[in-house]
Amino acid sequence: MAKVKIPRKSISLDMTAMCDMAFLLLTFFILTAKFKPDDPVVVDTPASISDTKLPDKDIMTISIDKKSRVFFGIDGQFDREKMLEFVAGKYKVGFTTDEIKQFSLVSSFGVPIGNLRELLATKDKTKFPQQGIPCDSLQNELTDWIAYARYANPKLRITIKGDVDASYDVVAKVIGTLQEQNINKFNLITDLKLKPKVL
């Protein structure tokens, strides 16, 4: 008896819905992406073989550029607003709601508290001449920024991002400022270089 051949039908899939879904997802990710704001200064970090990754949130960054100026920043707009209110209370500086809102959008800054209003009034903050936050023994405003940032968010992880050409004295002052507040655990931000090959 001869075998009966069943006719094969080609399967057709309608990919229209899949294309629509892909474009919807792409649009969603583009619109909800958070872009890293511009830093006020470029820091060329030294290289190391450590591959520990920093978390995405709750970070306090103390940057030191090649001119040995100190910059300070924390993430989270609400935390920045709370921190500024604490600092304004200590230094008896009254910031307007617009200035507080402007400050909450600044990722990092490097001016004394007396010049902060001028920085906030400037539209292009990257062009404002920032001389760094004072951290010497006579006037150590960095201590207050660190303390009040920790009041605003106790979960902050502290990182130091120092330039290769930064003065060792300034880095030592920053570390000393942290140690004065019993902060002995912090991360140094470096570029990743390849581990040496073992022979």
- The low-pLDDT segments are none
Q: What is the share of helical residues? A: 25-40%
What sequence of helices (H) and strands (E) makes up the elements?
A: HEEEHHHHEHEE
- Helix/strand structural class: alpha/beta
Give the strand order, joined by hyphens, for the main sheet. Answer: 3-2-4-5
**Alpha carbon gap, first and last residue:** 73 Å
> Per the principal axes of the C-alpha atoms, what is the gross shape?
elongated
In short:
With 199 residues, the chain is α/β, with parallel strands linked by helices. It contains six helices and six strands.
Explain what this protein looks like in three dimensions:
The chain is of the alpha/beta class and 199 residues long. The chain has one domain. The chain is 36% helix and 12% strand. The protein is built from six helices and six strands, in the order H-E-E-E-H-H-H-H-E-H-E-E. The strands form two sheets. A four-stranded mixed sheet has the order 3-2-4-5, with helices on one face. A hairpin with a 5-residue loop joins strand 2 (59-64) and strand 3 (70-74). Helix 2 crosses helix 3 (97-104) and helix 2 crosses helix 5 (141-152). The radius of gyration is 25 Å and the shape is elongated. The mean pLDDT is 85.
Q: Layout of SSEs?
A:
Elements: H1 16-32, E1 47-48, E2 59-64, E3 70-74, H2 77-91, H3 97-104, H4 116-121, H5 141-152, E4 157-162, H6 168-180, E5 187-188, E6 191-192
Parallel strand pairs: 1-6, 2-4, 4-5
Antiparallel strand pairs: 2-3
